[in-house]
Design goal:
By secondary structure, the chain is an all-alpha fold. It has 5 helices and no strands.
């Protein structure tokens, strides 16, 4: 019964990943492929960690690109917003940790990791959208 529940939950984890990857983002595609290859708990965690790092790298890339094109006031505003976002991220990670601490079973570990990854992914996409907006012709 536990194995059946595990695979049902993994199925529900993979559905959102597949839906999100419909925008053909390479990070999401790689995550889906990696999770398909190794659906064990440790495999999923490794895949999610790789994707998290890639989203974090993308976030930092767009942050740097934005600081290169913004005026002084824009840079100040971006720095402050990013500082506050990091505070939010850290608090939200604590919140996620707290929520999942009420659940037993290794199946919740990938779910928790995905929730954290989505926070970073969302911010990376926001910064990317700002950069595209400012550099469109």
């Amino acid at each position: 019964m536990t194995n059946k529940l595990f695979f049902v939950l993994i199925f529900f984890i993979l559905i959102p990943i597949r839906v999100l990857s419909q925008d053909n983002n390479p990070i999401d595609k790689e995550l889906t492929e990696c999770m398909d290859k190794n659906p064990s708990t440790m495999g999923l965690l490794e895949c999610i960690d790789i994707a998290y790092q890639k989203w974090d790298d993308e976030l930092n890339t767009y942050y740097k690109k934005l600081t290169n094109i913004l005026d002084d006031e824009g840079k100040t505003n971006l720095k402050e917003a990013q500082r506050k976002w990091i505070e939010f991220r850290d608090l939200e990670f604590k919140n996620i940790q707290s929520i999942y601490s009420f659940k037993e079973g290794t199946m919740y570990l990938p779910m928790q990791a995905l929730d954290k990854m989505e926070i970073v992914k969302k911010r990376a996409n926001e910064l990317g959208s700002y950069y595209i907006l400012l550099t469109e012709m």
